[in-house]
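Multicopper oxidase
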Amino acid sequence: MSPKRAGLGLYAALAASVIIFGAIAYVLFLNFFPGTGGPAVETGNRLKIPAVLHDYDPSPDSALYEIVVEKGKTAFIDGKEADTLGYNGTYLGPVIRLRRGETVEMNVANELTEFTTVHWHGLIVDGEDDGGPHHGIQPGERWAPVFTVDQGAATLWYHPHLMGNTSDQVYYGLAGLVYIDDEVSDSLGLPDEYGVDDIPLIVQDRSFRSDGSLDYRVNMMGVIPGDTLLVNGGIGQFFDVTTERLRIRILNGSNSENFTFSMSDGSIFHMIASDGGLLEEPYGTDGITLSPGERAEIVADFSGKAGKTVNLLAGNRNVLELRAASDIRDNGAVPERLVEIEEMGSPTGLKVRYFELQSMGISGAINGKTFDMERIDEKVRLNEPEVWIVTNPPGMMQSGGHPFHVHGVQFRILSRDGKLPGPAERGYKDTVFVNTGEEVRILIRFSKVGVFMYHCHILEHEDNGMMGQILVE
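Structure:
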């Protein structure tokens, strides 16, 4: 028997044990903890628009940001307060607005009573500035990474990335958005008035107990899907649309759930950007699916809809009520061409690496190995493109699809099961969903040095070992 097959056999045996004991633990959990209070119902609330983080550096070529990780109390339902976590506030965090070419210092203070990290998801920085599990911030301590923004306009995000407890900290509120602006995006005439015709949506599923507290529960297959949608930390919200075109930046900020977004009237909107930035041309569609960690920017057209209301949906659940004013103004058309995406060259003849995603219940592994902080799984050469083949083999014990995320890089999808990617996946990506039985090929090139993670972005899988490490040198 080959060492690889022996390792996989051992993994299967261990994972089977995890399922048995997980099932027992889950029954005990349900017996000893109060049940959920059911879906939270709130209506008529104006959309919460996150603040934009203040830049303390007056220079146009540099920026200094202060971030405090803190505990808080947040009233989600009927004024009942829940224990939450936040960045510079009680739940979620402000938008951090960066610009290509500037030098940035992030001064992060941990005022929690527990260990945390801050990972810049999608940002291309050296490994020492990435905020993975090696860059922990102890209670009462600070972390101050400095980096230069070296990528085009995009919508990214930030969240904890400590080993074993990322899922809890994100569930209770630690997440926020990062915008990158550049001259190219400035010149396109896209909607860009923050909070007016350019709005952010962090979409999360959560459950609540009858006392209004967050009800985070995990069974042997992972987190129990939330019965209530939060958008920017609010429930049952509306937004007053005052322009013919509305740019919506969507993050699937859930721990484990995929969301398919559409308009209640079935109308077409245009997707203009994916994880890593603008697409080459807008993609007209009536729906897009995002797995945990993925982002999309869309432009919805409200011309001819003055005085009407359209709901943005996730499946059959309401995300946001969009109320068009009786007198909406023309704010320009979406260009037919957006950007020219730099090619990495032909994938022919490149080094090929294989990544097999394996999971049983809440536990997981990649290539038969669970995460080890002291082990480097792959060594990659700086600036040398490679082809990665990511598979999610079918099996009775597999726990579904996996969003595969790579730190410190933006890659291109070459194919899904031998077919070219669809229009929504032709731009830069840092997270790709790999369904059961699928093979996804990506073209990847690292431009920064250091140790980076690759992992499943179902946070409970990540916490339970479905992660590996790359050394780029």
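Helices lie at 3-32, 166-171, 183-186, 459-463.
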